Amino acid sequence: MSREGFSGKPRVFLSYARNDGEEFATQLRDRLEKEEAEITLWQDRAKMEGGVGWWKQIEEALDQVRFLVIVMTPAAMQSEITRKEWRYARQRGVNVYPVKGRLDAKLDYESLPNWMRKAHFFDLAREWETFVNYLKSDRQPARVPFMAPDLSEGFIQRPREFDQLIAQLVDAKRENPIALTTALQGGGGYGKTTLAIALCHDDRVVEAFDDGILWVTLGRNPNALAELTKIYEALTGDQPDSDEATLPKSPQDLKKWQSDGFRPSKCLAAWRETLKIYAADAQETSEVADCLES
């Protein structure tokens, strides 16, 4: 889907918490529609379709737009829905622009993930022209992949083991990654994969590894090319033909591609493989793992 130039499709997705951000969001939408008609918006309450899955509509909207504008209010900062929206937007390569919906004293910046705290929060009373110019730009941020499978229904938490693993992955403040390689080892059916999936979905891990989470499934005869291609697509959004020059043909190709400026610095890579098979039974598995290690 082309995103070049302006089109009839919405350019901006406007996110807000209904409890304390709806009035600000409505005023923002009205001003943009009045003063900047070429900047088309999708706003969830204004354009929801009855009878259609709510989150599916949001995903479809974020798949089309170039910008996610979040009206930052105390309720928005605590909203799981808002977090879900900005995570999905980053996965899809959508620019995320927070705007201040309240005075700084009312906003708990410490509750936000690292990448968001470092982002510029637009003060529209002072920066309207700059804000509008950003929305008219062709900025294309790097995608932040999330490749882990969905956590199965009925998952039973194992707090002791889980907290021990969290301590191996992120620092004491639960802000920065500390692990290079962490392995889960055990017999078949013990729940290693489910535990790894749960770790990938944990907010502390998602926020610490804020360049994304990669997931690779390997076996005794892994298809390294297929798995590397999935990673390439997750990081770029491209689905190249098998004969396209940019397609990584080997772990070495992906390493070169990463060294050319596409390598994320804080990305968690998880792959299904026991240490025994990884070390002894699959050289190709080792090469894929080498590619994923930071």
Describe this structure in words.
With 294 residues, the chain is of the alpha/beta class. The chain has two domains: 12-135, Rossmann fold; 159-292, no CATH class. The protein is built from 14 helices and six strands. The protein has a four-stranded parallel β-sheet with strand order 2-1-3-4, with helices on both faces. A two-stranded parallel sheet has the order 5-6. Helix 1 links the parallel strand 1 and strand 2 (41-43). The longest helix has 18 residues, at 18-35. The model is unreliable at 1-7 and 271-288 (pLDDT under 50).
Tag the structure with descriptive keywords.
two-stranded parallel ribbon; single chain; 4-stranded parallel sheet; 6 strands; globular; 2 domains
Brief summary of the model shown:
The protein is of the alpha/beta class and 294 residues long. It has 14 helices and six strands.
Please render the helix and strand layout as text:
Layout: E1 12-15, H1 18-35, E2 41-43, H2 44-47, H3 54-64, E3 67-72, H4 74-78, H5 80-91, E4 95-100, H6 114-118, H7 124-135, H8 159-169, H9 192-201, H10 203-208, E5 212-217, H11 224-236, H12 251-262, E6 267-272, H13 275-281, H14 283-292
Parallel strand pairs: 1-2, 1-3, 3-4, 5-6
Helix pairs in contact: 12-14
